[in-house]
């Protein structure tokens, strides 16, 4: 077991090839859904509402879906997302962080917006 953990096999040996095969099998055969590595505000599904609120470490993060996917992230799309959130909440907001949410092919489909809580 110690030799496996310390990777003390020569390149080209049967043991080395088996370990490499196991690593590749793990990388390519385990579905990405098993890792659950995206925060809740980054998960955007087609049946989600246009605006949803998620709590991350006690902070409310609003996810605002765009009406159509954008090829790139720019100030115009950010402004549209903030404006849609203002209309939904019916109060003016001052976001202190806006982060684009991309598809697997790199298109912007939504924005995560952190808003300073008014006390």
Structural domain tally: 2
Structural class, please? alpha+beta
Low-pLDDT runs: none
Q: Which value, in Å, is the CA radius of gyration?
A: 22 Å
Helix fraction, binned, reads: 25-40%
Strand order of the largest sheet: 1-2-4-3
Shape by Cα distribution: elongated
Helix and strand sequence: HHEEHEE
Strand percentage lies at 25-35%
Q: How many strands, what sense, and barrel or not for the largest sheet?
A: 4 strands, antiparallel
Overall number of strands: 4
- Average pLDDT, rounded to a whole number, is 82
Q: How many helix segments? A: 3
Q: N-to-C terminal Cα separation, in Å? A: 58 Å
Description:
It is elongated, with a radius of gyration of 22 Å. The protein is α+β, with helices and mostly antiparallel strands and 119 residues long. The protein has 2 domains: 2-34, no CATH class; 40-115, no CATH class. It is built from 3 helices and 4 strands. The termini are far apart.
């Amino acid at each position: 077991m110690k030799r496996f953990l310390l990777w003390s096999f020569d390149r080209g040996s049967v043991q080395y090839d088996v370990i490499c095969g196991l690593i590749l099998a793990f990388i390519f055969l385990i579905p990405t859904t098993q890792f659950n590595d995206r925060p809740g505000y980054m998960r955007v599904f087609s049946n989600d509402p246009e605006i949803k609120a998620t709590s991350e470490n006690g902070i409310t993060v609003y996810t605002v879906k765009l009406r159509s996917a954008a090829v790139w992230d720019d100030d115009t799309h950010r402004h549209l997302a903030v404006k849609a959130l203002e209309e939904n909440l019916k109060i003016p907001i001052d976001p202190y962080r806006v982060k684009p949410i991309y598809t697997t092919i790199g298109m912007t489909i939504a924005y995560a917006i952190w808003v300073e809580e008014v006390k």
